[in-house]
Amino acid sequence: MLIKLNMAQTLDGHTYREESGWATTSSEDRRRMDRLRSWAQVVLVSRRSVEKDNPNLFIRNQPDSLHHPTPVVILSDGLRKIAGNLRIFNSPHPPGEFWVQSNVPETIDALIQSPSEKARRWKILQFKSIVDIVDYYRNKNISKILLEGGPTLNHFFLEEKLINEVYTTIIPSLWSGFTSDRIFSGKSFINNVALKLVSSERRGHELFLRYKVRYIP
User: Fold this and answer.
1) Domains of the chain, first to last
2) pLDDT tens, N- to C-terminus, the chain (217 residues)
3) How far apart are CA 132 and CA 138, in angstroms?
4) On the chain, which terminus has fewer CB atoms closer than 10 Å, C or N?
């Protein structure tokens, strides 16, 4: 199994701030994101990423494709409902999956506000650790996973030594200020990771970096 992480960040390392939302990138970055989504079988995001950014998770430059990745949303708690008008519940997204860690609802109506018929086709699954999610997809012969954040979810995957490659776009912005929203944000420090630069490209004023991840025993 290969798990790739794709995130954008400002030059001073921020991915999100309350006043302006997620870091905004160019059409070139979106093209590269589409290429990664074309590769992936599933794309994983956190509840916060879905609610704050309301992203499309399909291959945007090929909306008629029959091979869009399955959208997967990770929730730590299933008590609070998710809005039913989010883009992930609309075509051309295939029906997706919720992974809920605690207070797992039994029905989609208990998790989504006013769900559409398509949203009712989503599955609800329970996990105790991130490893449970990865093992589930491995057992279903899914070998290509794309992780698109947020930072806390990324940290959990890195903590379990599950991320194989990191793609990051450095955008020409400086936000300064205080925030914990970096590519990885967690309560523990992870110092057993070595990154090997595979490629670096400049397009306009953006930098596109790709790293392979090696975990040090």
Assistant:
1) 2-215 (3.40.430.10)
2) 999 999 999 888 888 766 655 666 788 889 999 999 999 999 999 999 999 889 999 999 999 998 999 999 999 999 999 999 999 999 999 999 999 999 999 999 999 999 999 999 999 999 999 999 999 999 999 999 999 988 999 999 999 999 999 999 998 888 887 766 888 888 888 888 999 999 999 999 999 999 999 999 8
3) 10
4) C
